[in-house]
């Protein structure tokens, strides 16, 4: 009997499933809390729940994770430096505030790959020495490096030489052309920068998985799920961690389709940190060629197309300090975006926490902020505290590593509210926050009972007292509000997809007895401008009603994946006219999805016609083939085309061989497209897309 093990390490839970390869039946599943900062604890705990006799027969292990996504969303990656090469005016670099360490140096190439200016190696050398003690990796992106990567490669070699120190290895250096072959120096730079930030996080995660599999004596092939639904080996995963940014949602999508038996479905995955909406159509994930956008960063990573919001089961629920006397509950309270430890879970770990909250709480509502709340405790994360300011050190010393500390204890001898200092300590991952969350809400309402319900009720009562409402009513409102936000994301996603491909997956219906009210929501019944603010505002208005006058009808099924998401099914059904599915094992759907991905590779190659003008006559002077890692010139077009066709297939087959896929099991496809400026002329460019697929376990 051959079995496969799927593991998903999410922001809150680590899930695992064992599946029979032949029957495709889930034989065993388990969940465990994800451990920070080292995920090995959560992985070990969840595998300890698996029967030993089943683990012994596992031949394949496939892993997915949302750790990279959450790292970017929470801006908690390791410090990295970005070196942009080219004319600063042409680079259009507009994220100086987001990138803390960067420099722009002279160099770069033009659209043909011809050098426009020499690489300023002296400027690179000076910059590397100025920041190497502050960062752990470098990213390099050069203007038109996809036409000629020479300057990126030279910069990489120089940085490695400058950062190597005796037995200590050189710093990792990530080049933009290694991650993307499409135009956009800035986006390639962002992609390389995020990749550099994620390298240490991913290395720790992958090494944890490998060490645990080896410790248990399992002789299994280990794969990592990428954000496009394909799987790769661990070496590639550690070199290109940015490609796992949406690994978790990709797994959830594949798992939703597999578990529900629907080749076409819409999926919403509610995790601890975020909620994601995506779609599979005729068995294939909906892929975005525009590049994944995460945490406000636009990358060049081809990923599943999705709508994501920083709203999950562990999102903090907090009271705003302004206009408290005159505003409504809706105006006073806010979800997220920061992930914290739910009070009910923390109380089950630290029993003294409940007694502490019963005795006292912070009561000055005019000082409320995201970091100062009536139900808010702090505890050290376990990460080493280095380079703190005097004020940060003073507050850090008040926070313990074994017992949560209340806001009262932190502010006991202070004459000020240390909100900014607490924010800094949280951002540096030195302390964790404990507070009121949607997970607590579900405990209060009896929809979920995994942790300490008494603690959740107490936290709800204290929060409600500052909002002049009953705690049960507050929790009902918060649950409906959460479901409303889920419904909004589903409508946004389908409306935008409908605009892109002229599909009719979404329509608007109204109840016959309130048809006269339709005119009030005229903007809401026309999803032709999904990106416009009026459309989104109208969707929000319609879906905010407890019993909406209008309903959005979704013509494809919606599959719910993740944790206690089933608790929202009825509320979601009240808001949307759709088939809502919660299949068996929905709570570990992402771990199942990790096993469904295929080994796949895509290569983009282009053949460009080089022309020159002489006495107002346009002449063809040759052909250039641009491929990953270089370019090659040809005199004859057919020779260039034949070279491109052969090289594309060769690169696909070499990748598959590296992944231990025999040639006879590779499904190879080639797409060729001529781009012409005028009729009768040689194509300005011929674009090739090469794809290779090999089925994984299923």
From TrEMBL:
<dbReference type="InterPro" id="IPR045079">
    <property type="entry name" value="Oxoprolinase-like"/>
</dbReference>
<protein>
    <recommendedName>
        <fullName>Hydantoinase</fullName>
    </recommendedName>
</protein>
<dbReference type="InterPro" id="IPR043129">
    <property type="entry name" value="ATPase_NBD"/>
</dbReference>
<dbReference type="InterPro" id="IPR002821">
    <property type="entry name" value="Hydantoinase_A"/>
</dbReference>
<feature type="domain" description="Hydantoinase/oxoprolinase N-terminal">
    <location>
        <begin position="5"/>
        <end position="161"/>
    </location>
</feature>
<dbReference type="Pfam" id="PF05378">
    <property type="entry name" value="Hydant_A_N"/>
</dbReference>
<dbReference type="InterPro" id="IPR008040">
    <property type="entry name" value="Hydant_A_N"/>
</dbReference>
<feature type="domain" description="Hydantoinase A/oxoprolinase">
    <location>
        <begin position="188"/>
        <end position="321"/>
    </location>
</feature>
<dbReference type="Pfam" id="PF01968">
    <property type="entry name" value="Hydantoinase_A"/>
</dbReference>
């Amino acid at each position: 009997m051959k079995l496969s093990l799927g593991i998903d390490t999410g922001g809150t839970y680590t899930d695992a499933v064992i599946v029979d390869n032949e029957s495709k039946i889930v034989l065993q599943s388990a969940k465990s809390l994800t451990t920070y900062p080292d995920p090995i604890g959560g992985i070990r705990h969840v595998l300890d729940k698996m029967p030993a006799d089943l683990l012994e027969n596992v031949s394949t292990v496939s892993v997915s994770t949302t750790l990279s996504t959450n790292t970017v969303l929470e801006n908690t990656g390791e410090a990295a430096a970005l070196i942009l090469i080219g004319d600063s005016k042409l680079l259009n670099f507009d994220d100086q505030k987001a990138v803390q360490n960067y420099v722009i140096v002279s160099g770069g190439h033009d659209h043909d790959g011809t050098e426009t200016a020499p690489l300023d190696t002296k400027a690179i050398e000076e910059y590397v020495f100025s920041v190497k003690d502050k960062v752990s990796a470098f990213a390099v992106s050069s203007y038109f490096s996809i036409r000629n990567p020479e300057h990126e490669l030279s910069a990489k070699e120089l940085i490695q030489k400058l950062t190597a120190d005796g037995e200590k290895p050189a710093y990792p250096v990530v080049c933009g052309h290694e991650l993307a072959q499409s135009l956009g120096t800035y986006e390639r730079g962002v992609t390389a920068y995020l990749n550099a930030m994620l390298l240490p996080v991913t290395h720790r995660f992958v090494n944890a998985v490998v060490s645990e599999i080896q410790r248990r004596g399992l002789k299994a092939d280990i794969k990592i799920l990428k954000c496009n639904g394909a799987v790769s080996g661990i070496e590639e995963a550690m070199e290109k961690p940015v490609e796992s940014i949406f690994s978790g949602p990709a797994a959830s999508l594949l798992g939703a389709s597999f578990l529900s038996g629907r080749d076409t479905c819409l999926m919403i995955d509610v995790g601890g940190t975020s909620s994601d909406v995506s779609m599979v159509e005729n068995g294939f994930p909906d892929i975005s060629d525009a590049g994944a956008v995460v945490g406000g960063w636009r990358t060049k990573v081809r990923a599943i197309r999705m709508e994501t919001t920083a709203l999950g089961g562990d999102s903090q629920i907090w009271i705003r300090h302004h206009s408290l006397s005159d505003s409504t509950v809706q105006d006073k309270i806010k979800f997220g975006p920061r992930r914290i430890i739910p009070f009910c879970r923390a109380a089950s770990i630290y029993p003294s926490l409940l007694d502490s909250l019963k005795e006292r709480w912070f009561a000055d509502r005019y000082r409320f902020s995201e970091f100062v709340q009536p139900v808010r405790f702090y505890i050290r994360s376990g990460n080493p505290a280095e380079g703190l300011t005097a004020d940060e050190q003073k507050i850090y010393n008040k926070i313990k590593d074994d017992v949560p500390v209340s806001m009262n204890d932190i502010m006991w001898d202070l004459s000020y509210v240390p909100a900014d200092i607490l924010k800094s300590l949280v951002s540096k991952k030195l302390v964790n926050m404990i507070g009121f969350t949607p997970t607590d809400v579900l405990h209060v309402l009896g929809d979920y009972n995994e942790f300490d319900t008494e603690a959740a009720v107490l936290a709800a009562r204290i929060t409600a007292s500052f909002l002049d409402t009953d705690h049960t009513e507050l929790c009902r409102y918060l649950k409906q509000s959460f479901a409303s936000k889920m419904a909004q994301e589903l409508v946004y996603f389908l409306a935008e997809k409908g605009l892109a491909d002229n599909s009719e997956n979404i329509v608007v219906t109204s109840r016959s007895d309130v048809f006269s009210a339709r005119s009030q929501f005229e903007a809401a019944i026309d999803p032709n401008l999904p990106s416009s603010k009026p459309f989104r505002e109208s969707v929000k208005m319609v879906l905010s009603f407890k019993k909406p006058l209008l309903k959005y009808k979704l013509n494809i099924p919606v599959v719910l994946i993740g944790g206690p998401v089933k608790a929202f099914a009825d509320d979601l059904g009240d808001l949307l006219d759709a088939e809502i599915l919660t299949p068996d094992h929905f709570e570990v759907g992402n771990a199942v999805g990790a096993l469904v991905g295929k080994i796949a590779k895509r290569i983009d190659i282009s053949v460009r016609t080089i022309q020159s003008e002489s006495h107002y006559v346009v002449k063809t002077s040759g052909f250039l083939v641009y491929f990953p890692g270089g370019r090659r010139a040809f005199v004859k077009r057919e020779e260039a085309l034949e070279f491109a066709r052969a090289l594309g297939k060769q690169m696909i087959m070499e990748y598959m061989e590296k992944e231990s896929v025999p040639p006879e099991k590779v499904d190879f496809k080639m797409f060729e497209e001529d781009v012409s400026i005028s009729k009768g002329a040689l194509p300005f460019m011929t674009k090739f897309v090469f794809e290779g697929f090999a089925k994984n376990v299923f």
